[in-house]
Amino acid sequence: MKRRGREVKQRKKVFEFICKFKADNDGLSPTYQEIADHFKWTSLNNAWTHVDKLVNEDRLVWLDDNRRMRIDGHYDPPVNPRSRDDFSEL
Question: Domain 2-71 maps to which CATH number in 3.10.420.10, 1.10.10.10, 3.20.170.30, 3.30.70.100?
Fold first, then answer.
């Protein structure tokens, strides 16, 4: 459970970074490399995994060109505390 909590916290940080990056760069989305560099990850797979989970949670949506993303809403915990994506431990 602790590992899951860390992953959820990290995913929230990735989401916040993407939001800030887009706000600071006229709506342009960060690349996987820019996300990985920001978090000092040596593997792009970490960035891809977090972005993919955010897309699956409908927090990010890829636009038609698959190079830019749209942010849907903000990072709120789900209503059901027993759901698979329980953020209450944040």
Answer: 1.10.10.10
The helix, strand and coil proportions of the chain, stated in percent and rounded to the nearest 5, come to 50, 5, 45
9-38: string of b/e by CB count within 10 Å (b at 16+)? eebbebbebbeebbeeeeeebbebebbbeb
User: For residue 87, is pLDDT > 50?
Assistant: no
* pLDDT tier at 50, thresholds 50, 70, 90: very high
How high is the mean pLDDT of the chain? 77
